[in-house]
Specification:
The structure holds 2 protein chains of 2 kinds. By secondary structure, chain A is mainly α. Chain A has helices spanning about 1-15, 15-35, 40-50, 55-80, 90-100, 105-130, 135-140, 140-160, 165-180, 205-225, 235-250, 250-265, 270-285, 300-320, 325-340, 345-350, 350-375, 375-380, 390-405, 410-430, 435-455, 470-490, 490-505, 515-535, 535-560, 570-585, 585-610, 610-625, 630-650, and strands at about 180, 190. A two-stranded antiparallel ribbon of chain A has the order 1-2. Chain B has 13 helices and 9 strands. In chain B, the strands form 2 sheets. In chain B, strands 1, 2, 3, 4, 7, 8 and 9 form a 7-stranded mixed sheet that branches. The N and C termini of chain B lie far apart (about 55 Å). Classes of the chains: A mainly alpha, B alpha/beta. Chains A and B meet through helix 3, helix 7, helix 15, helix 21 and helix 27 of A and helix 1, helix 2, helix 3, helix 4 and strand 2 of B.
């Protein structure tokens, strides 16, 4: 093994392989930064180019890309709350609040250090477990998948800081969204309304772009201001502070990396879950869970370590069995197959040297990408001092293009837009977004594997404890549920007092805030009605259960609300304070209304006339008319951005941007 | 629309000192807009076909089995086209390949959009008449890349060591499969019924390798799989092949002593195949169709392609347009006859 590794190392040091590695790293970083396009796109575009290459060069480049993408994705997540790719979404939760406090450089420093360490741990694990990969992957059958999804869902309960009920409602809504689309067990399409738009369900990347990037940018268009209103610490010393924080919290790095690796090994769950799970576990085990979401450096470290460690984990089922652990791995499999390296049990025996090149490239990339990211942090972080009136529309335009490019589907633009507005409403009215995201991702896996388990065992529930792995998972679920509940009960009196004092602050808007509850009840009732009347008995069971559950929670929420017992969560209070102080509430609601209207208009114009028309029109309109910026600024930004988007997406990436249903 | 809604601010700014510059800036803006729209508008056709890039729609995400095939073929196809035309593979994944099929079906029949089709997966919804979005009868078939037979597999060392054992089992045999509208599910249901195996199918596995692993893990008793998926696991001895659904003579690399369709007494089994076919929109002019058919068949016999197939362990059995049309008709007839099967439980 050692001599093969040495030979692979020498391969990597040869000039051409090193050049391909470097190209891979840069490409990975850039693709990571652009929202919507990520490693999958980069690898897919690379695929035909590798056709004439030496296999080891192709793998060096692929390794470079895979190791660098997650670092790239974290940068916009931290700076502008826009996840560059799915797994970076969890980094938004605390990374972005840190940027708001002017600590972007520190957060990126921590992210870089955690990514590198996580990457190294993931690769180490990969090398350790590759020989027993098949046995490892075989541990996870449908019952284990179900329990794993349940474990993820129970972290919902722990990730909600101040308001359990609202968190559960958001989780219910997420499950409702997850039930949309093709039911893989019965083959019926649920809530598809006869279009292709929703057949495959709510696509994750556009959903995350909507829920994080767009909803945050609506806030900016409505409120103005800058990401970091105060002076930003962008010196290298700040980056070093981030490094130090990562070293100080080494336990969190280890835990995050392990979560990332394990989730990576399990095929089909993906890095997004890994990052969120690592984040939730960190919140859960912290003595002050309520301070997360307001800029805790640990909240950056955990998901970042998981995010990069999962690459090593992902490669286990991909290399050993040919089962792609994620979308990125599907494209990577293509590269392997293209070069005659049939993944599967025989791969390691036949192509040992190439696999070591890949592993070493991945290692080098996860370190070098972090170094590169840190080198550019000073310039990149300048974006946090751009005016919100300009930043908001620009980010929304790029994000919606990204949402389109993720699957080349115009419908995804609508989904991102709708979820963006919904996400804004949620933060505005005090519903946390995190449970919705986790439920959206895990809902489908949970339902499918539950029904499969029941079919396999002929309805015998003991199937869920019949293997050692499933028993361990059951214990973890119980622990995850009881641990935070015990703490909530223990701290009950203290928090209730705090909640009451918050309640006073909120009282003037509590009537308005009843409306969302009522609207959500309406939506849920419609969902139930459709499920009841349109779906077969087999495929409506789960939707009905989720619907009734959510409806009951909403009713309880409303009752508590009318009794005046509804404390807002910290995030909501913060927004209210900021929004309220600006122009008074009437003016605020007007700007909000128009910000939402502009986005709806943008999506509608994209749908009708395509991006190339919609982007300039939207940018000019919303910066000039909505943001009240001087026309010259608006026109300059419009021209610059429209050209950049056209050059990057149409020319460099040879996407054909959507041309509209009228022109296309 | 948004301009109307925001008339007030527009007017408000109209009176501002900005007004003088407005004309100039708007002119620039309009020019840019015009330039960008110009790219969208269709150019009138002139020179000899092909004089634009040709797009091959791949109905799956990058990296899948189809994808690599097309991407390996694309540069060789390019070599056979005049005017330095590019052949660009475009992934239109989703809805089990139906999104991709639809976008080929709805494309202009000018020879610049063609696509790969996955059979019989795409047929099923159409035959159930659930889907009026495209009709496979109308597609202009160009060529077939390859066809593949299925086989019946159990875990190595399983007590169910022959088709006979499956047929006489007291309990229904559990099979694993992907979703109920997949080729694999249909193959499972039809073959089990042809062989007289009482069956229950556990659906919802995410891909063919996962379907296979369900057998190795012991979730289910057996699986019906295509040969390229099973080959690596046959080699490592994780699974055993109990039956081969093809006819004698084809199906390279299948183990000895495995009965084929004729020996199983069900020659109809040989009609259960996966086919990867290339086609264009309905109404593709005959001269373009013939041109593409020749170019594709030519590219597939390119020594470079043969070398790629050998290196990657893939197989191709190119068939021309006429043979492809016959294959489609044959498959349609076969599946129409068996369509009620998946519903019975």
């Amino acid at each position: 093994m050692l001599d093969v590794a040495t030979r692979a190392g020498l391969d990597l040091l040869s000039v051409d392989t090193a050049v391909f590695l470097a190209v891979g790293i840069v490409v990975g970083l850039v693709f990571g930064v652009i929202p919507g396009v990520g490693g999958t796109t980069a690898l897919a575009i690379l695929l035909p180019l590798t056709f004439g290459m030496e296999p080891s060069n192709a793998l060096a480049m692929a390794g470079g890309i895979m190791g660098a993408v997650s670092m790239g994705g974290s940068i916009p997540a931290i700076l502008i709350n826009t996840p560059g790719q799915g797994p970076s979404a969890a980094t938004c939760l605390d990374g972005y609040p840190l940027a708001r406090q002017g600590r972007a450089a520190e957060a990126i420093g921590a992210s870089a250090a955690a990514s590198s360490l996580g990457g190294l741990i993931g690769i180490g694990t990969l090398l350790l477990v590759l020989p027993i990969a098949k046995q490892l992957v075989l541990i996870f059958g449908p019952p284990e998948f179900f329990l794993l999804a349940m474990l993820g869902l129970t972290t919902i309960a722990t990730s909600i800081r101040s308001h359990l009920l609202r968190g559960l409602i958001a989780g219910g809504l997420g499950l409702m969204l997850a039930s949309i689309g093709d039911d893989p067990v019965s083959g019926t399409v649920r809530f598809g309304f006869g279009t292709y738009l929703l057949v495959d369900g709510i696509p994750i990347v556009p959903a995350l772009v909507g829920l994080f990037a767009i909803s945050e940018m609506i806030l900016f268009s409505a409120r103005g201001g800058r990401v970091a209103p105060g002076p930003a610490q962008l010196s290298f010393a700040a980056v070093l502070t981030g490094f130090r924080a990562t070293i100080q919290h080494f336990r969190i790095v280890i835990r995050g990396s392990l979560v990332g690796t394990i989730i990576g090994v399990v095929p089909g769950v993906g890095g997004t879950v890994a990052a969120f799970l690592a984040y939730s576990l960190t919140v859960q085990s912290d003595p002050h869970p309520e301070t997360f979401g307001q800029g805790r450096i640990e909240g950056v470290i955990a998901p970042e370590a998981a995010n990069n460690a999962k690459d090593g984990g992902d490669l286990v089922p991909t290399l050993a069995l040919g089962i792609p652990g994620s979308a990125e791995m599907v494209a990577f499999l293509g590269i392997l197959v293209m070069h005659g390296m049939q993944p599967g049990p025989m791969l390691l025996l036949r192509h040992e040297e190439e696999i070591y090149v890949l592993v070493l490239a991945l290692t080098a990339s996860s370190v070098l990408a972090s170094v590169l990211g840190v080198l550019f942090v000073r310039w990149l972080a300048l974006v946090t001092s751009v005016k919100g009136e300009i930043l908001g529309p620009a980010v929304i335009a790029v994000s919606l293009v990204g949402a389109f490019c993720a699957n080349g589907n115009a419908g995804d633009v609508v989904i991102a837009g709708v979820l963006g507005i919904a996400g804004y409403m949620m933060t505005r009215f005090g519903y946390p977004r995190l449970p919705l995201v986790i439920a959206l991702i895990l809902g489908e896996i949970a339902e499918r594997s539950f029904r499969q388990s029941m079919m396999i065992s002929d309805g015998e529930w003991l199937v869920f404890v019949h293997s050692p792995a499933s028993s361990i998972l059951v214990i973890l679920i119980i622990a995850s549920l009881t641990w935070p509940l015990a703490r909530i009960l223990g701290n009950r009196q203290g928090t209730e007092k705090k909640a009451e004092s918050k309640n006073v602050n909120l009282s003037p808007i509590s009537l308005v805030a009843c409306l969302p509850s009522l609207m959500l009840m309406l939506v849920t009732s419609a969902y139930l009605l459709i499920a009841y009347s349109n779906l077969s008995e087999d495929s409506r069971q789960m939707p009905l259960m989720i619907g009734y559950f959510t409806l009951a929670l909403l009713a309880l929420d409303l009752v508590l609300h009318t009794r005046g017992r509804m404390p807002g969560n910290a995030e909501q209070l913060m927004i209210h304070a900021e929004l309220g102080s600006r122009n008074g509430r009437g003016a605020l609601m007007r700007t909000e209304f128009f910000a939402v209207l502009w986005i709806s208009g943008f999506v509608a114009i994209v749908w009708l006339f395509g991006f190339l028309f919609a982007i300039p029109a939207y940018l000019l309109g919303s910066i000039w008319l909505q943001g009240k910026e001087p026309l010259r600024t608006a026109a300059a930004v419009t021209i610059l951005f429209s050209l950049a988007i056209w050059l990057i997406f149409e020319q460099a990436l040879s996407y054909r941007l959507y041309e509209g249903s009228l022109l296309g | 629309m948004p301009l109307v809604l925001h008339r007030r601010p527009v007017l408000a700014l109209w009176g501002s000192p900005m007004r003088e510059r407005l004309g100039k800036i708007l002119a620039v803006f309009v020019t840019i807009l015009a330039l960008s729209t110009a790219g969208i508008l269709p150019c009138p056709a002139k020179a000899e076909y092909p004089d634009q890039d040709i797009r091959i729609i791949i109905p799956s995400s990058p990296g899948g089995g189809f994808d690599t095939f097309v991407r390996a073929l694309a540069p060789l196809l390019e070599k056979r086209l005049a005017n330095a035309v590019n052949v660009i593979p475009v992934n239109v994944a989703g809805a089990g390949g139906r999104r991709g099929a639809r976008s080929v079906y709805q494309a202009k029949p000018d020879g610049y959009t063609i696509g790969v089709f996955n059979m019989p997966g795409l047929m099923i919804e159409g035959l159930k008449e659930k889907d009026a979005d495209f009709s496979l009868d109308e597609i202009t078939w160009l060529a077939t890349i390859n066809t593949e037979n299925y086989g019946l597999f159990v875990k190595a060392g399983s007590q169910l060591s022959s088709v006979r054992a499956l047929q006489t089992s007291a309990a229904p045999i559990k099979f694993s499969a992907t979703g109920p509208s997949s080729s694999g599910y249909l193959a499972t249901k039809i073959s089990a019924s042809l062989l007289g195996i009482e069956n229950q199918v556990v659906t919802g596995y995410e891909g063919s390798t996962e379907t296979l692993l369900a057998v190795v893990r012991g979730d289910v008793d057996a699986a019906v799989l295509n040969l390229s998926v099973s080959a690596p696991f046959l080699e490592t001895g994780d699974i055993t092949m109990l039956a081969y659904f093809g006819l004698a003579g084809d199906g390279r690399g299948r183990p000895a002593n495995v009965p084929d369709a004729t020996e199983l007494g069900a020659p109809e089994l040989a009609k259960i195949v996966i086919a990867r076919m290339l086609g264009g929109p309905p109404g593709l002019p005959p001269n373009i169709r013939n041109f593409l058919e020749r170019a594709i068949l030519d590219a597939m016999s390119d020594p470079e392609f043969t070398m790629w197939l050998k290196k990657t362990g893939n197989e191709a059995q190119p068939q021309d347009a006429a043979a492809s049309r016959r294959l489609i008709e044959l498959m349609m007839d076969f599946y129409r006859g068996h369509l009620d099967l998946p519903r019975e439980h």
